[in-house]
TrEMBL record:
Signal peptide: 1-30
This protein's record includes keyword Protease: no
Region (Disordered): 66-87
Native source organism of the sequence: Caballeronia novacaledonica
Protein name: Surface antigen domain-containing protein
Keywords: Signal
Pfam family, one: 17kDa_Anti_2
Taxonomic superkingdom: Bacteria
Domain Surface antigen: 29-130
Biased composition (Polar residues): 75-87
Keyword Signal: yes
């Protein structure tokens, strides 16, 4: 398979995998993904994700590597309290873009979930997850 096709196939797979993870929050039991039941992502709604994204933008712009920013979903309308931290871990250059590894933590109903993506700052000044 040519490199361009492999790259496209990989990008398509990652997009589908990310979509599947979000969809799994509503159909975890039916799809044999019961391990996701009662994890913070299953309680997160769009406004909760926006609150996490807003906190990540602030942390990535203002915090030094290793410094955390607390976040929560107060004011989102969700009856399930969700909170956590955003911690930039490592700043580096990738293809002329400023990038940072970041640890995102969410806690809800006694469960904790952690994600460790890489975000890069675009020309528009916004941080976006780097496709792996």
């Amino acid at each position: 398979m040519p490199i361009t096709h492999r790259t496209l196939a990989r990008a398509s797979f990652l997009t589908l995998a990310a979509g599947a993870l979000v969809a799994a929050s509503t159909a975890a039991s039916a799809a044999n993904l019961g391990f996701l039941n009662n994890t913070p992502i299953t309680y997160m709604k769009q406004r909760d994700l926006q609150a996490l994204n807003d906190a990540a933008q602030i942390a990535l712009n203002t915090k030094k590597d290793g410094e955390s920013l607390d976040w929560d979903n107060k004011g989102t309308g969700n009856t399930v309290p969700i909170n956590g931290t955003v911690t930039p871990q490592e700043t580096f250059d990738s293809g002329g873009l400023k990038c940072r590894k970041v640890t995102l933590v969410a806690q809800a109903k006694g469960q904790t979930q952690t994600w460790m993506p890489v975000a890069c700052k675009g020309s528009d000044g916004k941080w976006k997850l780097k496709k792996q």
